[in-house]
Amino acid sequence: MSVNEHQKWMMEALLQAEEALKLDEVPVGAVIVKDNHIIGRGFNQLITQSDPSAHAEMVALKDAARREHNYRLPKCDIYVTLEPCMMCLGAMVHARIRKLYFATTEPKAGVICSQGCLHEMPFLNHHMEVEAGILKEEARDLLSAFFKNKRAEKKA
Q1: What is the DSSP letter of 115?
Q2: Pick from 36, 110, 43: which is nearest to 76 by CA?
Q3: 40 within 8 A of 16, measured Cβ to Cβ
Q4: Does residue 76 have a pLDDT over 80?
Q5: How many CA atoms lie within 13 A of 142 on its CB side?
Q6: Quick check: 88 and 66 in contact, CB under 8 A?
Q7: Is 57 a catalytic residue?
Q8: Catalytic residue among 57, 83, 129, 131
Q9: Can you give the C-alpha Rg of the chain in angstroms?
Q10: What pLDDT, in 10s, does the model give residues 4-50?
Q11: Which residues contact 24 (CB under 8 A, 6 or more apart)?
């Protein structure tokens, strides 16, 4: 797949992140791609759904699994705007995601490179390829602006 194809899919994930932003959720988005088609979409909905598991990746995985009528997604790739947390990585492993692409790192809770490389642990029964940095600045800027606004709201 070309760089432009990866940017195309990450841009779709960024569009999902903007949906989260409209709901005043942390702007993280994800899409799942199979055979050059999006089969799952998701954005953060923790607050609006009162669900601690409603991370963008989890929502996209559930959407794709429903469409595929299968909890396994072995020929699928996920594009997410932020480095996944432990919960989301675990779900990707269980779903047998082929490759993870993420835009920007999550220094506090990211488990792909920021707080460890958990996807490489030998005890896992599935290992996926990982690529980071696609549209990194766009994802980082969206998140930075969100948190800057949140801090300004607290001061007001």
Answers
A1: S
A2: 36
A3: no
A4: yes
A5: 26
A6: no
A7: yes
A8: 57
A9: 15
A10: 999 999 999 999 999 999 999 999 999 999 999 999 999 999 999 99
A11: 47
